[in-house]
């Protein structure tokens, strides 16, 4: 499920509110964040950051509870999704041009119109927008959105 909208529309904020609502329904959820630009993969000053800056082609950090891998390579969503095969739902932050169903976020003063390519499962809106073809939810209606996603999963 792709959550799309313009920069600063509130995608991360919405997902941070939605994830606990989905977890309360015993759904295991993963998030893959799409970044149209390059990004800083590690926090400056950490050992993994220093090793990457020293020229390592990849760095892995692990503990008994989690791991992180940073690699210099080309990768797509189709390469990452299998890493979360144990999850009920993968939420893609971004993906406006992906083939996946979309929940598009629109905020008055930030959004000028739709940016995501159909299909749209729903719109999460703050402000006045003329929209058709999919349910409209308030931006902070996490329970309503969780209901919608749970219903989608049952189909």
Write the layout of secondary structure elements.
Blueprint: E1 2-4, H1 11-23, E2 29-33, H2 47-53, E3 58-62, E4 67-71, H3 77-80, E5 89-93, E6 102-107, E7 120-126, E8 136-138, H4 142-154
Parallel strand pairs: 1-5, 1-6, 2-5, 6-7, 7-8
Antiparallel strand pairs: 3-4
Describe this protein with a few key phrases.
single chain; alpha/beta; two-stranded antiparallel sheet; 24% helix; Rossmann fold; 155 residues
- The overall average pLDDT, rounded, is 91
Through-space gap between termini: 14 Å
Quaternary arrangement of the chains shown? single chain
What portion of the residues fall into strands of 2 or more residues? Answer: 25-35%
What is the general shape? globular
What is the rounded Rg?
17 Å
Helix proportion: 10-25%
Low-confidence stretches: none
Q: From N to C, what is the helix and strand string?
A: EHEHEEHEEEEH
Here the CATH topology equals Rossmann fold
Q: How are the strands ordered across the major sheet?
A: 2-5-1-6-7-8
Biggest sheet character: 6 strands, parallel
Number of strands: 8
What is the name of the CATH superfamily? P-loop containing nucleotide triphosphate hydrolases
Structural class: alpha/beta
CATH class: Alpha Beta
CATH architecture grouping? 3-Layer(aba) Sandwich
In DSSP terms (H or I, runs of 4 or more residues), the helix count works out at 4
Q: Please, how many domains?
A: 1
């Amino acid at each position: 499920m792709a959550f799309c909208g313009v920069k600063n529309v509130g995608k991360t904020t919405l997902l941070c509110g939605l994830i606990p609502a989905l977890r309360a329904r015993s759904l295991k959820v993963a998030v893959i964040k799409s970044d149209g630009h390059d990004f800083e993969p590690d926090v400056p000053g950490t050992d993994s950051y220093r090793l990457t800056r020293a020229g390592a082609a990849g760095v892995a950090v692990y503990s008994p509870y989690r791991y992180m891998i940073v690699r210099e390579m080309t990768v797509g969503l189709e390469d990452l999704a299998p890493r979360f095969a144990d999850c009920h739902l993968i939420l893609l932050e971004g993906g406006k041009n992906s083939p996946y169903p979309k929940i598009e976020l629109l905020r008055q003063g930030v959004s000028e119109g739709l940016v995501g390519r159909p299909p749209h499962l729903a719109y999460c809106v703050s402000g006045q927008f003329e929209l058709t073809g999919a349910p409209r939810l308030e931006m902070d209606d996490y329970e309503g959105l969780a209901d919608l996603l749970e219903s989608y999963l049952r189909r």
